[in-house]
Amino acid sequence: MNSEPTPAQDSPFRPESRARDTAPQFVLPLVVRVERAAPPARTDALETAARAVLLMLADERSLGDGPWAQAMRAWQDARIRKVVRRARGAEWRRAEALPGITVTGKAAQVRVFPPVPLDGWPKDLAKLQVSGTDLDDPEPPAEPDGAAPVLWMSPEVEMSAGKAMAQAGHGAQLAWWELDEEERAAWRDSGFALAVRTAGVERWRRLTGGGLPVVRDAGFTEIAPGSCTVVADHPALQRT
């Protein structure tokens, strides 16, 4: 699944073939902790994954001459792939021992790692399961805070929790690219406050036509190429 701002017309989430398709392909690994007796709520996992992506983008190790910067540049020069796998118990402890960032939500825990070649995953991550990450919300999530950014998920596309986590990360990344340095600093200072919600059909139609960043999936897994999956509704990006 799929640092410099990228023009919307050249979004790496578009399905069309681009020069970035011929570049070496990298992937951003994310691992969600799913203990058998206490799995996280779906919305909590999606929001935590989105924040994890933002923290990786903003981390000083990802910038300039930082130890992760070269991998981050190589990843962003290709299609922006993200893959979410799940771990529990000893698997999670081994994942935490690898270089990365662990982000904790209300209860969810997600660890994000520097990008790796598509076929070059670390052994302890490569053997984790990518399928079967099915999470539910015990109660419908509350209405989002009107002052915080919202990543609106499509009401028309069904996705596993793992796929939706990756798409939420895409939406957060597109919003980050569109912000100027002052807006990025303000978001970072808020702890990357955000909400992930599924839009109603009418709201979705307004959002996709409102000039906000839209994730169009490349179609590598689960859904058709070009499917609109997320709209990044950051207050600083609202056109009206």
UniProtKB/TrEMBL annotation:
It comes from the Bacteria. Keywords: Hydrolase. This is peptidyl-tRNA hydrolase. It holds the Pfam family PTH2. It comes from Streptomyces actuosus. It is an enzyme of class 3 (hydrolase). GO terms for molecular function: hydrolase activity. Its EC number is 3.1.1.29.
